[in-house]
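Forum > Structural Biology > Help requests

Title: Can anyone predict the 3D structure of Ribonuclease P protein component?

Hi all, first post here. I have the sequence for Ribonuclease P protein component but no way to get a structure on my laptop. I'd be grateful if someone could post the C-alpha cells.
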Amino acid sequence: MEQKPDSSFHKSERLCSKRVIDALFAGGSKSMSAFPLRVVFMPVPVEAPAPPVSVLVSVSKRRFKRAVKRNRVKRQIREAYRKQKHILTSALPTPSGQGLAVAFLWLSDRLYASAEVDDCVKRLLVRISEQLPASPAEHPGNASAL
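Reply #1:
Sure, ran it for you. C-alpha cells for Ribonuclease P protein component below:
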C-alpha cells in the first residue's frame, strides 16, 4: 500500500521561538523572492519529536490595514505550504538532527488568487530544496562528519 505524504499543518510546525525568529532575521540566513512572496530560511538543530521544518507567515500591517485581508493572505500561504510541504520535507536529510526554519513574508499590497499563491509557494519550496545540502556531512557546523 502506498503511503501518502502528510498534508497537514500542525501547531508544532509553526515557528514560535523568539530566539529562532531573531536569529533568522539577524543574519546568517538565506532569502529569495518570487513576487508577491519572499522566503527567509536557515538550518536549525532539531530534537527527535519535533517536526523538521518550522514555518512563520508574516503579512505587514503597512500593506493591508484591515485584519480580514491580512488573515486571508496568511490563510492562503499556510494552505499553499500545507499542500506543497512534501517538496521540502523530502529534500531534508532524515537521520541528521538538522531542521529548517522558514519565514514567508508578503511583499505586495494587493490580494491574489489562491492558485497564484500556490504556484508562488511551490516555486519557492523547489528553489529552497535545490539549495539544501544532499547529505548531513555538508551541513556547516556538523563536527561529527569530520
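The chain has a mean pLDDT of 86. The first helix runs from residue 18 to 26.
Shout if anything looks off.
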